[in-house]
Amino acid sequence: MLILGIETSAVSAGAALVRDGKLISESFLNVGLTHSETLMEVVDSCLQNAGVAVGDVDAFAVSKGPGSFTGVRIGVSAVKGLAFGTGKPVYGISTLEAMACGAALDAYLICPVMDARCMQVYSALFRSENGELKRLLPDAPRKLAELREELAPFDGTVLFLGDGADLAASWFSDKPEIKFCVFPEIFKYQRAAGVAFAASMRYNEGDMGETAAALTPSYLRLSQAEREKQRRTQ
Predict the structure, then answer these.
(1) Which H or E run includes 137?
(2) What are residue 22's DSSP bridge partners?
(3) Which CATH number belongs to the domain containing residue 90 in this structure?
(4) N or C terminus: fewer CB in 10 A for the chain?
(5) Which of the pair, 190 or 186, is modelled with greater confidence?
């Protein structure tokens, strides 16, 4: 099973190829250009480096959110186009789940954290057991105080990763009831390899994916423009 994963949910853009659970190619950019400028070049580089044509890909996977509204739309639209053109299935992967797949260590509770501004984060919680990722908390936008309350019942050291990890760590530093550590710089950025690995795990569990038409983003909250419109209406 050859899966092409695409990641555009935050500042970085990436593409990765995973064949039967093994990473064979990955391209990553974090240069400040918009994903609409760079994504297809990243995808082409990933395919060419592996000597693979897009028609050889068995399934496509994309981070469907949470994250940047524009970034998520670009990634989802790109995968829809690739899947429509080839007739292959797609996997819409939670950005937070994909992040956790890249740091699945059995010794920790894994808490991917994305900065959602205004002292809020997009977060979830996972535990890795013998290489299998178990979800403990759903994806949600949370205030840091709410995240603390939801983490408190779980026993173990929490591993923060993502672009909101430092924010979470600074806020939790005087909260002795939460034991935590922070992954290094490389895990601050979402990566396409995690997206492809998450899709590969689903395939191994019998999930055959969905059609391109059925793929939709998962923003978790209204955009700023929609929130402002809602306030004016009220």
Answers:
(1) strand 132-143
(2) 19
(3) 3.30.420.40
(4) C
(5) 190
